[in-house]
Amino acid sequence: MSFLKRNKTKPSSKAYAVVTGAGSGIGRSFALELAKRNGTVVCADINLDAAKETVDLIEKAGATAFAIQCDVGVAEQVEHLANEAEKLMKHPVTLVINNAGVGLGGKFDELSLDDWRWCLHVNQWGVIHGCHYFVPRFKALGYGAIINVASAASYTAAPEMSAYNVSKAGVRALSETLYAELKKDNIRVNCLCPTLVPTNIIKDGRIPERYSKLADHALMNFAMTTSDSVAKLTLDRLDKGELYTTPQVDAKLFWLMKRTAPNLYAKFLGFSYQFVK
Ligand SMILES: NC(=O)c1ccc[n+]([C@@H]2O[C@H](COP(=O)([O-])OP(=O)(O)OC[C@H]3O[C@@H](n4cnc5c(N)ncnc54)[C@H](O)[C@@H]3O)[C@@H](O)[C@H]2O)c1
Q1: How is the beta sheet containing 65-69 ordered, strand by strand?
Q2: Cross-referenced InterPro entries, in alphabetical order (predicted)?
């Protein structure tokens, strides 16, 4: 594909896409939005029934989708997903959205090593596996696109979120690296870094009981966006060839503070946290 032609291409349009964690929240919104853009979607999720529900919604809207059960933290299952997706869609995959993720909160010394492993298994290894198995396919195809769902947590470094923050910082670092490394291979990369989006992430996560209800309430009632808007915006940013999607004002503000005054920002966090019981 010529340089001119590939720069006119919109990866979100008529995509042959794989979306992980497509059974709920942001992943479901990505799958539905891709279908609206005349795409064919493989909805992968550890929860097969949830993935099938997303497929039903897409089929009702008149588009084509398939459900596959996959634990993204298990390399063999992601390799299987990559192979099966191509067979089901009868077309090479052109876009992978590494979205599956889990929420984990609590003080550093409250977290068990099992908590850490669970969080990194899904949030970090899931994304590494997705990139590992799809990048060679995109190179062979001559083009492709990747959306990695990180979080504003990848740079906000808020207290009581150590494992989650680490997992998402890794996703952002990987996305930044691949954005530059894969440019000459005509593979686009976008890294999504939202703050609060109303989904099931708190309800289904491992969040300390002392604030799980409050956190879920904040997520469901005070988020400045919806999963549908986030998915739409991210696909538009990918089409424009942008690396970062920071959908909300607070995500942009934290990014600016962290980048321009990192020491002051850390002191501010430490100071504020003294008043949290
Ligand atoms: N909701 C937010 O406020 C928010 C903010 C920033 C980033 N994110 C990120 O967005 C992504 C999507 O989360 P969400 O908010 O839509 O949550 P969600 O809980 O609504 O959806 C997550 C989906 O991932 C699936 N999943 C969990 N473990 C899996 C595994 N091992 N393999 C495959 N699928 C698995 C779940 O079954 C679920 O369908 C996550 O990576 C999350 O970290 C969410």
Answers
A1: 65-69, 40-45, 16-20, 95-98, 144-149, 187-192, 244-245
A2: NAD(P)-bd_dom_sf, SDR_fam
Q: Which domains does the chain have, with CATH numbers?
A: 3-273 (3.40.50.720)
- pLDDT digits over 116-174, tens only? 999 999 999 999 999 999 999 999 999 999 999 999 999 999 999 999 999 999 999 99
Q: What is the pLDDT of residues 179-234, one digit of tens each?
A: 999 999 999 999 999 999 999 999 999 999 999 999 999 999 999 999 999 999 99
Task: Using pLDDT thresholds of 50, 70 and 90, give the confidence band for residue 8.
Answer: low
Q: How far is the CA of 102 from the centre of ligand 1 (A)?
A: 5
Decide whether any atom of ligand 1 lies within 6 Å of the 55 Cβ: no
Indicate whether residue 26 lines ligand 1 (CB < 6 A).
yes
The DSSP bridge partners found for residue 17 are: 41, 95
For residue 159, the 8-state DSSP code is T
**Catalytic residue positions, numbered:** 164
